[in-house]
Amino acid sequence: MSKLKQNTSVNQEKQQRINRSLVINLLCRQRRCSRADLAKLSGLKRATITNIVNEFMEYDLILEDGLMEGEKGRRSIAIKINGEKYCTIGVMLTRHYYTLGIMGISGEVYRIETYNVESVMDVEAVMDSIRQNIRKMIDEEKESQVLAVCIAVPGPYKRTKERVVFVTHFPGWEGIEIEQRIQQGFDIPVFIENDANAGACAQHWFCRDDKRNKDIVYIVAGQGIGCGMILNDELQTGRNGNAGEFGHTSIYYEGAKCECGNHGCLEQYCSSIAIMKRIQDRLAKGEASVLNQNSSFADFGEAVRLGDALASDEYRRACEFLAIGIVNLVNQIDPSDIIIGDLLADVDPVKMLEIVQNTVKKRINPFFWEDLTIRIDPLEYNPILMGAGIIAVQKILEDPLQYIKKGVKQTEEEG
Ligand SMILES: [Zn+2]
Q1: pLDDT over 70 (residue 210)
Q2: Full set of structural domains in the chain with CATH
Q3: Distance (Å) from CA 95 to ligand 1 centroid
């Protein structure tokens, strides 16, 4: 084959992949629509849509679903994604446990399982346990075929061309190539993402009917403070995957030194760890509270809800500091929606929202306050776990037939 012809066929193949990805993503967003709708929304020719739809139907990736009202009252056949045939597994790793969730490619959750980690220090044991339980989940799934796995980890980690290295503050985990390690023994792809980024993807996915939600920042306010940013419908990861580490933006340059090397990082003022440290300091000074030196963060939450003065004061202070961080975020990236989730938001969502909104409103230009939405995480399931599953779905949908063909072959070999 001449070089020119070879290039043309490579380009055609690439264009076909882009078209397939466009169509399946539109269908994901629309949930149910006609072939004519897809042509209109994608700008592709009707014949191209027909070919792609036929191809997807051969692989049971999409289904016809009765009739629907079209333009000028004409009825046409509706199509939708076959959410029951294919699924993905999301994994969420924390310091004390990990959770596995299996979800259909339309986003329905089938099953969630949580496993305690005796000691996160024992890297090999934790990795083995995660691999075994993923394998068990794949084997037990009889109705649909698992296409991919995505593991959401607490940041930061460093992503280079060759590898993803885990650099978070889990002792003994530094430099671990977690994606490759979990991949061992599986012939389906394993992806990795930062937990806040995964949470942002879930928020974006479940808000997809709302035309506003193109620019979402999802803030994880827990043991650390981080955020995932989706701007113009795209996840922002930065060069190394380190974008969104806004807990390590300094709000006081002479503040205490942080483990990241900076001084006065935001998370030193409003993470759950920072709150508990201040509570202990104030108790040691003899201040009255229902809390004592052995109280946990869960006890702290209960004390806030009971109206304990010390706990309520510290909660207000932490929410105000978080709001200062949010003001900085708004001035830097100007998102349409900010969603706050995790431990701090769970304590008293109504109170948190009120404090954060009031503080942000006072400190930003009124023109920007006008159309800014700040919300507390509205999702039924953990957004980080859901987001891991969704990222796996999105990676598959970038080139669905590549993964699904492989899947069909696997079943044949096994049979
Ligand atoms: Zn820091």
Answers
A1: no
A2: 3-81 (1.10.10.10), 86-200 (3.30.420.40), 214-335+343-376 (3.30.420.40)
A3: 18
